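Methods, example record. To illustrate the input and output format used throughout this study, we show the complete record for HpcH/HpaI aldolase/citrate lyase family protein. The sequence lines were provided to the predictor; the line carrying structure tokens was produced by it.
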Amino acid sequence: MSEGPGLARIDEATAPLVGTWASIPDPSAVELLAGLGYDFLAVDQEHSPMSYETIGNLLRAVDAAPGETESLVRVADGDPTTLKRTLDLGPSAVLVPMVETAEQAAEVVEACRYPPAGRRGLGVARASDYGRSLAEHVETADDAVVRYVQIETERAVENAAEIAAVPGVDGVFVGPVDLSMSMGRFGEWDDEEFVDAVGHVVDAARDAGVAVGTLATSAEEREARLAWDVDYLVAGVDVVHLAESAAAALEHSRAVTDGEE
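The corresponding predicted structure is encoded as:
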């Protein structure tokens, strides 16, 4: 299982890490993507029908793939039980959506740490090699687990500096779609207020010394959002990759058949 050093060691001297989003609940698809050489693969529980059993199998698929790809799980919510059950599966990192205050961020950190630093319950699970490395796991888990929180509302932007400064928060993630909707500017990526909001979050992360990342689903978005000076980028979503490649193959085949090429 991955120890999470890449995601944990993001700093200004590190080139941006590039990952991709996995929402298709199939280990074969995840193993294929992880084997392409991405720095990390983000498994999405928030907007998918994945069970914990499925997530566990997807994490095994990441580890089975050749290379050094790490695993990140975007959990469905910040509930301590959700985080505990997810962390027991052994991902390198977790991303918690819809965090709007420093208090919420502190609760996330507490839920991810074992006592006395937190309140994560200990179980015999994959993260501890099914109990065979229990003592070592308890000693190292608090530092090994990478904790990211998602900034995706106007309220979260207002509190970004306080959120990023919470001890134990390793990074923030700008959710561009939900943030633009929250601001009443859905998809208006060049809107001045949206750009200012993103800049505020990036500055807050820099001031706190933590990582900042975001999502991009097209070539244009990747260029624009890497220019935000992010530390990690989710460069697309599996279903979008599949749809766009399939559509391009269909269009090309019909063009050849019709004599257009």
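Annotations derived from this record:
Confidence is low (pLDDT under 50) at residues 1-5.
The beta strands are 17-22, 40-44, 70-74, 93-96, 146-151, 171-174, 211-216, 232-237.
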